[in-house]
Design brief:
The structure is a single chain. This protein has 300 residues and is an alpha+beta fold. It folds into 2 domains: 158 residues, Ribosomal Protein S5, domain 2 (2-Layer Sandwich); 127 residues, Alpha-Beta Plaits. It has 10 helices and 12 strands. The strands form 2 sheets. Strands 1, 2, 3, 4, 5, 6, 8 and 12 form an 8-stranded mixed beta sheet that branches. The chain has a 4-stranded antiparallel beta sheet with strand order 9-10-7-11, sandwiched between helices. Helix 1 runs parallel beside helix 2, helix 1 crosses helix 3 and helix 5 crosses helix 8. The protein starts with a strand and ends with a strand. Bound molecules: cytidine-5'-monophosphate. The site of cytidine-5'-monophosphate (C5P) has 12 residues, from strand 2 and helix 5. Cytidine-5'-monophosphate binds next to strand 2 and helix 5. One of its GO terms (molecular function) is ATP binding. Pfam families: GHMP_kinases_C, GHMP_kinases_N. It is an enzyme of class 2 (transferase). Belongs to the GHMP kinase family. IspE subfamily.
């Protein structure tokens, strides 16, 4: 095989509950991931060494040196296989960069699936999941897709059944946010308030809403413990969230660490109308309609 293409979805967190800061600098989470139909494509081509090229709207914001997560994923896979392999990775970005939608994790997951195929390794999914967890907290979910609850750092996943399709609008912001800086701001705010940080718990009502496919109930139970920190760093997002609510969104939250804002719509038509309203009123410069759940990293 000389070339392989993999499609990988973005995610939104329908519940993101953040526990106390751990000794290793991470936080224990209850993180309900939901994969949505905004995609990156990763092409892997035969080559002597491992290289990456990034194309698309936000490509200039993605590093192409050794810190690139897709390169790190390909290297980790070659190491796991015990040989030195090469691949030219060509990434087409559809997922906002540093937007709180796991774009970097998607590229890592895509590189794992693509190189596993290109190099004919035939490694089972469980092995890829293990390598993924070492690369980043969200990478296993980018492989898995669907809807799942992540515990630990977010990398220990249990799939959740969903009873239908949910329709979303994502308002893209100018410029990204570093995940680490948002967690740091969350810690700072918590320290300043001296409030006890409870152990994160899965919201049963949210689970039920996902299971029955009830968008109204899901909308009322969306939650994100990072949102206050994100809004502190980017106050201009608060009116964007308000505007979505005024235009009938069933729920409006910051996606993960942000700055992308996520709005749950009633159906596909409402999602289109909501996206239109957000852009024409100037509440967002770009708004994209999408649906979920969709499958994780997939060979195409
Ligand atoms: O795992 P990943 O490299 O994606 O995490 C990026 C940063 O987000 C970490 O360095 C850490 O600051 C923060 N993080 C955290 N707790 C988690 C996941 C991420 O504090 N469970």
């Amino acid at each position: 095989m000389s070339s392989v293409t993999v499609r990988v979805p973005a995610k939104v967190n329908v519940q993101l509950s953040v526990g106390p800061l751990r000794d290793d600098g991470y936080h224990d989470l209850v993180n309900v991931f939901h994969a949505v139909s905004i995609f990156d494509e990763v092409v892997a081509k035969e080559s002597e060494s491992i290289t990456v090229q990034v194309n698309g709207k936000w490509s200039d914001q993605v590093p192409t040196d050794d810190s690139n997560l897709a390169i790190r994923a390909a290297r980790a896979l070659a190491k796991h296989a015990g040989r030195s392999y090469g691949a030219d990775l060509i990434i087409q970005k559809g997922i906002p960069v540093a937007g709180g939608m796991a774009g970097g994790s998607a590229d890592a997951a895509g590189a794992l699936v693509a190189c596993n195929e290109l190099w004919g390794l035939g490694l089972p999914f469980e092995d890829l999941m293990e390598i993924a967890g070492d690369l980043g907290s969200d990478v296993p979910f980018s492989l898995l897709g669907g809807t799942a609850v992540g515990t630990g750092r977010g990398e220990q996943l249990t799939e959740l059944p969903t009873g239908g399709v949910f329709h979303w609008v994502f308002a893209l912001a100018n410029g990204g946010l570093s995940t680490a800086s948002v967690y740091a701001e969350c810690d700072r705010l918590r320290e300043a308030s001296k409030a006890e940080v409870p152990w994160p718990q899965l919201n049963d009502s949210l689970m039920e809403a996902l299971g029955t496919g009830d968008a109204y109930a899901l909308g009322s139970h969306l939650s994100n413990d990072l949102q206050t920190a994100t809004l502190n760093l980017r106050p201009e997002l608060a009116p964007t969230l308000d505007s979505g609510r005024q235009h009938g969104a069933l729920g409006a939250i910051v996606s993960g660490s942000g700055p992308t804002c996520a709005f749950l719509a009633i159906d596909a038509t409402h999602a289109r109308d909501l996206a239109h309203s957000l852009t024409t009123t100037g509440a967002a410069h770009t708004a994209v309609a999408a649906h979920g759940p969709v499958q994780g990293a997939t060979l195409i």
